[in-house]
Amino acid sequence: MIPIVIIGSGIAGLACARRLADEGLSPVVLDKGRGIGGRVATRRAGDLQFDHGAQYVTAQDARFAAVLHGLETKGALADWPDAKARPRSVGTPGMSAIAKALGAGLDIRQGVQVARIVADGAAWALHLGDSILHAARVVVTVPAPQVAGLLGADHPLTAAVAGVRLAPCLTLMAAIDAPAPFASRQDRDDALTWIARDNSKPARPQGPALWVAQAGEAFSLTHLEQDPTAIAAAMLPLLCDRLGVTTDRVTHAAAHRWRYARVTQPLGQPFLTDAGGTLHLGGDWCIGPRVEAAWISGTAIADDILARG
Q1: If exposure means fewest CB atoms within 10 Å of the residue's CB, which of 57, 76, 210, 284 is most exposed?
Q2: DSSP helix/strand/coil, 173
Q3: CATH: 3.40.50.300, 3.50.50.60, 3.30.465.10, 3.30.70.100. Which one for 2-41+95-163+266-308?
Q4: pLDDT tens digits for 75-114?
């Protein structure tokens, strides 16, 4: 019997585990992927690297601001000189450094897929394919649309998240051997709502301009089910047009599909819990589309667990 299992090693799961570990508990974090951090991620292709998920972090909450300050002190975070209306911070040498710093020393087990969660007396049975793991408490930090697959369509918490909405986002990563006209550009009315020169961020590899372009909801929905090669082929001409370059200057192009990227209708509270307080749900989808929201949700869950004893 494991006292606390956290499903998902995105920022919400890591924040929850970090808070519990700092209080002397030993949570186990399970994640089906090969890397931690969820959308706070960095993709590498040879000598190239791209922050292909979250582009930066900001802080309004004082506790989260303190966390960011601590990460900066450790060398895992730095200010991005392209600051606009408010300061933007980025992981160094990539956004994935944020997750790695938050997860340092935690018991994180990757490549573990939880198929379903079933009540088993006063505990929970986590079905992992051909094996079962038992836990006294379970924290689920997967995207809201995936909750039903874990808990079942008839579970009360499944009904509670039914109104949450998340939109997809398609990301293009491109190396272009041409002068960069800007460091970043945001236009919510364009098919490419966000474009950034990734190596304008601190501590990034120099050389050809490395671009990350993220599509808006309409474009992403239209092309969502295409394979990554077709997605890249659809997005690349748009990026070249916005940069004023021809496609023959492109030396690398790849795409990534984020199926649950942007929170468009949040839950409206930091987390959900069952009647017994042994099953919690949380994530950025509880509050809004920010890295900070995921951290607040995960930390609030940990605080609730600690308060229950």
Answers
A1: 76
A2: strand
A3: 3.50.50.60
A4: 999 999 865 656 799 999 999 999 999 999 999 999 999 9
Q: Is the pLDDT of residue 283 over 60?
A: yes
Do 103 and 14 form a contact (C-beta atoms < 8 A)? yes
Cα separation of 97 and 57, whole Å? 12
pLDDT given for residue 129 in this prediction: 86
Query: Measured between alpha carbons, how far is 21 from 47 in angstroms, rounded to an integer?
Result: 35
Say if residues 140 and 280 touch (Cβ distance below 8 Å).
Answer: yes
Residue 33 corresponds to which tokens in the numbers above?
């992927």
- Quick check: 292 and 57 in contact, CB under 8 A? yes
Q: Bridge partners of 117?
A: 126
Q: What is the pLDDT of residues 235-267, one digit of tens each?
A: 999 999 999 999 999 999 999 999 999 999 999
